[in-house]
Design a protein that fits this description.
Shape of chain B: globular
CATH topology of chain B: Rossmann fold
Distance between the termini of chain A: 28 Å
Order of helices and strands of chain B: EEEHEEHEHHHEHEHEEH
Strand order of the largest sheet of chain B: 6-7-8-3-9-10
Helix content of chain B: 25-40%
Radius of gyration of chain B: 18 Å
CATH class of chain B: Alpha Beta
Shape of chain A: elongated
Radius of gyration of chain A: 33 Å
Strand order of the largest sheet of chain A: 5-6-11-8-10-9
Number of strands of chain A: 14
Structural class of chain A: alpha+beta
Largest interface: A-B, 23 and 25 residues
Largest sheet of chain A: 6 strands, mixed, barrel
Strand content of chain A: 15-25%
Strand content of chain B: 25-35%
Largest sheet of chain B: 6 strands, mixed
Number of strands of chain B: 10
CATH architecture of chain B: 3-Layer(aba) Sandwich
Number of helices of chain A: 14
Number of domains of chain B: 1
CATH superfamily of chain B: P-loop containing nucleotide triphosphate hydrolases
Oligomer: heterodimer
Distance between the termini of chain B: 41 Å
Helix content of chain A: 55-70%
Chain lengths: 414, 245
Amino acid sequence: MNAFAILRIALNALRVNKLRSTLTMLGIIIGVAAVITMIAVGNGAQARVEEQIKSLGSNIMIIFPGSTLASGARGGAGSQQTLTEDDAAAIAREVPEVQVAAPSSRGTGQVVAGNSNWSTTIYGVTNDYFEAREWPIVGGRLFEPGEIQSAGKVAIVGQSVTRQLFGEAFDPEAILGQTVRIRQVPFTVIGVLDKKGQSMLGQDQDDVVFVPIATARNRLFGQAQGKLRRVGTISVKTREGLSMADAEEKIRALMRQRHRLQAGADDDFSIRNLTEILQAQEASSKIMTLLLAAVASVSLVVGGIGIMNIMLVSVTERTREIGLRMAVGARGRDILMQFLVEAVTLSLIGGLLGILLGFGGSAAVGKFAGWRVEIEAASIFLAVGFSAGVGIFFGFYPARKAAGLRPIEALRYE
Amino acid sequence: MSEALIQVSKLVKEYRMGDNVVHALDGVSVSIDAGEFVAVMGPSGSGKSTFMNLVGCLDAPSAGDYLLAGQNVARMVGDELAAIRNKRIGFVFQQFNLLARTSALENVELPLLYSDVGKKERRERAARRLQQVGLAARMDHHPSQLSGGQQQRVAIARALVNDPVLILADEPTGALDSRTSLEVMALLQQLNGEGITIVVVTHEHDVANFAKRIIQFRDGKVVEDKPNTPADAQLLVAQSTRQAA
């Protein structure tokens, strides 16, 4: 008996009991749709975290200044600028795991170009900062060593700033060499950065202007700290494949020594390992995806049990038909195949409809809950494979029961 | 006589009912030649149905031999028996056993589905057999749209479609009124005239009288096996036709 004939018998049998077939399929449809939607939601969350990791740069930790203690009142983190450029240089020099240690100081200011102006964040940095953040420029150049030494009035701008100041039409060549005034000081734009997107807190990372760190200190935020070369934070990038925890320990020891902290005294700085935090987030979103998929697959299994139930009813109902088929020459395996194909057809059609519903469900979640969803090709194959598997697994027992009937008994069954 | 189509010797079939062993068939030896028209009769529980099931290869005997066209099928199992049923035996049942919601043509095609016959040939052969039983105009009708007699004729066409050597009819008129019973039996008689061996199980003498030979069963044994004289048969046919009219 050929496959086509078997399939036709199966489709006929399903057509005869349309309502029953549809309801049975519904279990699989809902199961598959749930699996696809849940995996899409999980993947969306995961992709978001992955993107954040990418935008942060890999293996990044950030050293923040500590807090002050004045008359028993403790200031918040960063209330005292305890970090210096020399700390950064020492970290880069003395901790072997460190690839770069980039000092930066931060302020805000009005930026004016022609007749547009925009308030943005201004960072004083060295070229190391761009390396640490893995943030390339798309036009122009980085700072020259001389510009960093002599507090040159040059600026590298993020793309949100160029859009605000120079309009939507983005043409790095037209922007380069333009003069912008930052806090009334004229600067020449020498570079435009690549687009970075949102940070993990949802801030626009491209809304930023970079100037050499000495320039920021001496010309823009001229606080009385020139000599000490205070900086706001130090971004540290460790070498690939080396332990970030080790690096963190060594940096902590080095900083305590440099800051002459007594044993038992609190750190006057804090180290935040952002990569680790994000990795933990990624791991938890992975677990979340798995969990969602596992819960959703429970409904697939329930759907499979529905198929088994209906197939058992069907075998009983059609006992005489089975007996007749055997009497006219059907072998056990013909009967087995007939019922197995029927079960698998049921579950596969359910699976395909479930995929469509899964697409719809994912789109709906994306639209109404505002979550990011990503449908993966693998989850579709998984769903189809799973539903076929469910059909075979739960169809086999009823089919074998049918095939094992004895012809005379089946023929005489009332 | 060595070329008997059905050669059954010392056939035994036992059923176990709790502690009791029931001898449904107790050493039956029968020989049926090709081209015969045999009626098997007997009260219920006499073993005639069991005999039919064994001859039809629907069941295996507990002991004894059964040669069908020289082949010992008593020792065959599962798939081999299925192949014999498919190729050599055509069944006609009391309840017709047609597939509901399936056209007459497809019902007749059914045995061919299990014997690797191409779709086109299947159609042709099924159509030819339906024509032979006088249902050429009813090919696309479903069983529910056919009368009892027509349904039984579809069943006969189905029994014929794979060119069997033997047709086994188990109470073929049991669900029919006497008029259509006669039609169906006349059809079987006609087929027998064309050379097909027919074995009918029945408890109606009117039906049995169409046969050329009547075998009586009782308590699992053959108690009488004699030719049915054609003259008697004709007379009875004439009588029953009158009664029906």
